[in-house]
Each structure stands twice: as C-alpha cells, then as structure tokens.
Amino acid sequence: DVQLVESGGGLVQPGGSLRLSCAASGFIFSHYSMKWVRQAPGERREWIAVVSSSSTITKYSDSVKGRFTISRDNAASMVYLQMNDLKAEDTAVYFCAKGFDPLDSGPAYTNRGQGTQVTVSS
C-alpha cells in the first residue's frame, strides 16, 4: 500500500522558515511526480508545488512562488518542502501527495499523507 508520512511542521513566527519532509513507501518512488498541497481552516485544499520524477521540472502556485522550494531524494524515497519567509496566510495542514505519472504536474493526486500542521503566528 502507498504510504506517505509528513513531518517537520510546527509553530513559527512570521518571516521564519520550516522544512517539511515526506517519507514515501509502497510504490516505485522514482516513477512518479510528487506534490505538496495544503488546506487552511475553512478553505479548499490548495495545490502548491510539484516536482517531476527526476527533479527536472518544478512548479509552484503563485501564492508560494519565490518563497518555497520543493525537492526530492529518490534514493531515500523522500520529498521535501523548504518554506522561507513564512506568512500568517501560510497557516494550514500540509500534505504530500503522489502524482499520476513521472511528469504529472496537475493539482490532482492518487494518494496523500495524513498531513502536518504549520502555524505561522507571532
């Protein structure tokens, strides 16, 4: 079974940084794009970043472009989200998600993890 386990969330002040990690198992990790999505209270789930299977393509939503960086380590079956210059509006539960194929960069996904809470507050 596909398993995605996020970690690294927490409370951070505005302007601070966090690095989220996601451990993947149960599928051939290097064969699929990986994504991060988030959901704030009372809001719809929002796709924010994707990395292709070989890391040649990365894309970001306008809301995080220039502040967040997605990366992956295929040898370790890990995907990361480096978040810098965090803002209050970044407060949400963050999920990593598996794409449909190596280059899938759309907002949909086949599986997602349980999520990790990120709270940006002073």
Structural commentary:
Strand 4 (34-39) and strand 5 (46-51) form a beta hairpin. With 122 residues, the chain is mainly β. The chain contains no helices and 11 strands. It has strands at residues 3-7, 10-12, 18-25, 34-39, 46-51, 58-60, 68-73, 78-83, 92-98, 111-112, 116-120. The model has no long low-confidence stretch (mean pLDDT 97).
Q: Topology as H/E string?
A: EEEEEEEEEEE
Give a short account of the largest sheet.
Answer: 7 strands, mixed
Radius of gyration: 13 Å
Overall number of strands: 11
How does the helix and strand content classify structurally?
mainly beta
Question: Which helices and strands appear, and what pairs or packs with what?
Answer:
Elements: E1 3-7, E2 10-12, E3 18-25, E4 34-39, E5 46-51, E6 58-60, E7 68-73, E8 78-83, E9 92-98, E10 111-112, E11 116-120
Parallel strand pairs: 2-11
Antiparallel strand pairs: 1-3, 3-8, 4-5, 4-9, 5-6, 7-8, 9-10, 9-11
Summarize the structure.
This protein has 122 residues and is mainly β.
Label this structure with key terms.
122 residues; 0% helix; 47% strand; mainly beta
